[in-house]
Design goal:
2 copies of one chain form a homodimer. Chain A is α/β, with parallel strands linked by helices. Chain A is built from 10 helices and 13 strands.
């Protein structure tokens, strides 16, 4: 019998998620680890291997049951060499051959990709972009990332460093961005920036979920904050729509939880400012797979790559 | 013997160019017509057919000598239906089945596409983007257009309305653009806008070629003008580079004639502000095929489409 299960890992700035998925991408088991304490590279790698071991042992998996191990990682990845170029928000990682390390440890096929690209892959195969040839997927969080689907396939570019949607400038000048650029979308609507803005408006720290709840209840300040986020996201999308003429734009990630007020404003800006032919039939929709998109995308990658 | 020649047409705002090309895309004959007087759609179509007839008769071509007729047109094109959606700068054209009209007239295969896309196709097959898998080609003129090559093929998007590079906003607010958008790159660096700026700086109307000559001679005002154009073009390209991670960016069209001062500034901005992995090996080069790119691209389209 062919191997049956994929093990998926989604590494973020705060959490390391590990999951076991069946052939239909149903999550059968999951394991969550807080990563804040792993400041050294070796510790984080050890934590990853322990999480995989935990999932293997508590599900009594044998090597022949496992199709492969897939990892979604928060930075640019060399997919062919299965190595990490670097992590913008985790120090100490530079050209790390993580794929080889894990293959030697577990003796199963290992595949790596950027987390936002895997979310896009998952949304295309099983979520809101399913059935579309040309799609742009965006994830709004601490970072603003994304993935581009062209002709039904994940578009990578020369170095697999495409679709850095958060790093499209929306002004000629503006705030410096972590990436070294200036006036990038992320420098305006990344989580931290929204929370700063909220502190200014409400006079205290206030979680994003709370701002969303207030907006739903009709709070004018909260609605204005989300509309401002929507305006900037919309302006970036005008350029993307005129440039790529996609069929659908899928928006996910924590900030997308703001819901209707955000999506309405994004659609309003795109329909007012993007070119008529491109915007006419365009769909702008919310991601479907939620927080599990990264895990599902990692498993999709493993299955598609091992099927040759 | 298989048919040998392609007839190519490049329709611009002021000129209608017709050419005869051999299988190696050498231009054997050309015909130029000033189009300013053809304000009615029927007159312009008649002018196109007469130009084709002229090239046919003076080269003594028989129908079996002709591979096909290719047209590069200044607006969005429905490639499958071989029809013109509309021309932004030529009134009276709306959903015109120009391909069918010309096929019935000449009884040879006819293919239509957007002029900027055909320039990109030509630069990819025979010019500065040759040999690259992922390329972005830009043409700077009255309009700012372009074409995207992905995986060695012209990328079209849902409606063949992709690669409207001139209509990427570079500011949240700014001048209204002809396309209905706001703060689009074209609204800052389209020919007309550059000439307005030149009038303001030099106190009189001054042709672009003259500004370029002055810049080459070291005139500070002329150099500052081209650097300002380069800055804005560069900022738009930062977004494109972070988004598409191409191998090469090819810049052509009249404004590219400004030469070194413009290209230096564009490279400076991209290398300072685009992300490191994406900009590291990126080439930004001048187009090679000059004013004939549109004609050559039209002939390439005809050959590639008739070869099945």
């Amino acid at each position: 019998m062919a191997p049956h299960y994929c093990i998926a890992i989604d590494l973020g700035g705060t959490n390391l998620k590990t999951a076991l998925l069946d052939p239909r991408y149903k999550i059968l088991d999951r394991h969550l680890l807080f990563t804040g304490s792993f400041s050294r590279k070796a510790d984080l790698i050890r934590a990853i291997t322990r999480c995989v071991e935990t999932v293997i042992s508590r599900n009594k998996l044998r090597k022949k049951d496992i199709v492969g191990l897939g990892l979604g990682l928060p930075g640019p990845i060399d997919v062919e060499k299965k190595s990490v170029h670097f992590f913008p928000n985790i120090p100490g990682w530079k050209n790390v051959a993580l794929g080889r390390i894990l293959e030697q440890k577990f003796m199963v096929p290992v595949f790596l990709d950027n987390d936002a690209k895997l979310m896009a892959l998952a949304e295309h195969r099983l979520g809101a972009a399913r059935g579309f040839q040309h799609a742009v997927c965006i994830t709004l969080g601490t970072g603003v990332g994304g993935g581009i689907i062209i002709g039904g396939r994940l578009y990578r570019g020369r170095d697999n460093a495409s679709s850095e949607i958060g790093h499209i400038p929306i002004n000629e000048t503006g705030p410096l961005c972590n990436c070294g650029g200036r006036a990038c979308l992320e420098a305006y609507i990344g989580n931290r920036r929204i929370m700063q803005e909220a502190r200014r408006i409400f006079g205290r720290d206030i979680p994003l979920e709370e701002i969303s709840r207030r907006a739903r209840r009709g709070d004018r300040k909260a609605r204005a904050l989300w509309r401002a986020v929507g305006t900037r996201l919309g302006i970036m999308l005008v350029g993307v729509v005129n440039m790529l003429n996609p069929q659908v734009i899928v928006i996910g990630g924590g900030v997308a939880g703001a819901g209707a007020v955000l999506f309405e404003r994004v659609r309003e800006v795109v329909s007012a400012q993007a070119m008529a032919v491109q915007s006419r039939k365009l769909k702008i929709v919310r991601a479907k797979l939620g927080n599990d998109a990264g895990l599902i995308g990692a498993a999709v990658m493993v299955r598609e790559r091992t099927q040759g």
